[in-house]
Design brief:
- The protein is built from 10 helices and 11 strands.
- It is an alpha+beta fold and 287 residues long.
- It folds into 3 domains: 1-102, Orthogonal Bundle (DNA polymerase, domain 1), CATH 1.10.150; 106-177, no CATH class; 198-285, OB fold (Dihydrolipoamide Acetyltransferase, E2P) (Beta Barrel).
- The longest helix has 14 residues, at 106-119.
């Protein structure tokens, strides 16, 4: 339908409310390589192909996989993803963007994927030299007895280990944790180049999308609660009154912003124009 560069995303989202159509973020089982129309629910799901480091082929392969098998666990899905072209960086990006949210929260799934990457290719564990790996497995509540019960063993080795059973046990044991709001916003900005989710926080909290490299810059802010975006003027004398100059990916609390008339040069002199701009006067940097 559309191939999702940011400009086309903006075009889509601005036109669709007229048709009572909702655009949803990427989701396993719904998204394809390109934007996909779910006619039954009058909605559109963003395509995988527009995400940094991803491509249309990956999106289509994952969609096909979702239609072929109803995976009951993330570990079972990871085993099947091994047969696609998806690489580790792409998979981690999709996890960070909540693509696999039906299997758990982003932090849990990323931890689980690291266990999978560490254990999946192994056939055995040395009881002495691999003690660090055994301890890592025990850390998430999987006992060495469970390892022994799912392997054959010698005096020094656990052999022919059924790592799939161990990983399924790990998946059950890992708490369903999420990354913090800032980490989630950073991932969206890094890989989508825009923010696509809102969070239940104080509406004075804004996320810095960009700031011009000038003495008196404009700063582009995204409201974390509402999703609104504004470009505010920031003068050096106001920066000097605050903690420091904001940088991209900062979260700031806006305490004061006022409308002021712009200055313009007329016959070599600066005068106040009729045009106004929103000026950021007072802020705190939260993180």
């Amino acid at each position: 339908m559309y191939q999702g560069e940011l400009e086309k995303t903006t075009q889509i989202t601005s036109e669709l409310p007229y048709f009572d159509i909702t655009v949803y973020p990427i989701q396993y089982g719904k998204s394809k390589g390109q934007y996909f129309m779910d006619k039954a629910n009058n909605s559109i799901y963003k395509g995988i192909g527009s995400i940094k480091y991803l491509n249309t082929q990956v999106g289509n392969e994952l969609y096909t996989l979702s239609q072929q098998t109803n995976h009951k666990s993330f570990i079972n899905l990871l085993y099947d993803i091994e047969d696609t072209s998806v690489n580790s960086r792409q998979l981690e990006i999709l996890i960070r963007l909540d693509y696999f949210s039906q299997f758990g929260n982003d932090k849990k799934l990323l931890v689980l994927y690291k266990y999978f990457s560490n254990l999946n290719s192994r056939k055995q564990l040395n009881k002495e030299s691999n003690r660090d790996i055994i301890s890592l497995i025990e850390k998430v509540g999987v006992t060495e007895t469970f390892i022994a019960d799912n392997s054959s063993q010698t005096k020094k080795l656990y052999k022919d280990i059924n790592f799939k059973e161990i990983l399924l046990k790990i998946e059950t044991n890992i708490p369903n944790l999420s990354f913090g709001i800032k980490e989630r916003l950073d991932a969206q900005l890094d890989y989508l180049t825009y923010i696509n989710k809102q969070y239940d926080v104080d509406n004075r909290l804004w996320y810095v999308i960009d700031i011009a490299d000038y003495k008196n810059p404009y700063v582009k802010l995204h409201n974390i609660r509402t999703g609104d975006e504004k470009s505010l003027k920031l003068f050096k004398y106001d920066i000097d009154k605050n903690v420091r100059r904001p940088v991209p990916k900062d979260i700031i609390m806006v305490d004061k912003a006022v409308w002021q008339r712009k200055n313009k040069k007329v016959n070599g002199e600066w005068v106040k124009s009729k045009d106004k701009q929103l000026v950021l006067k007072k802020y705190n940097i939260i993180g």
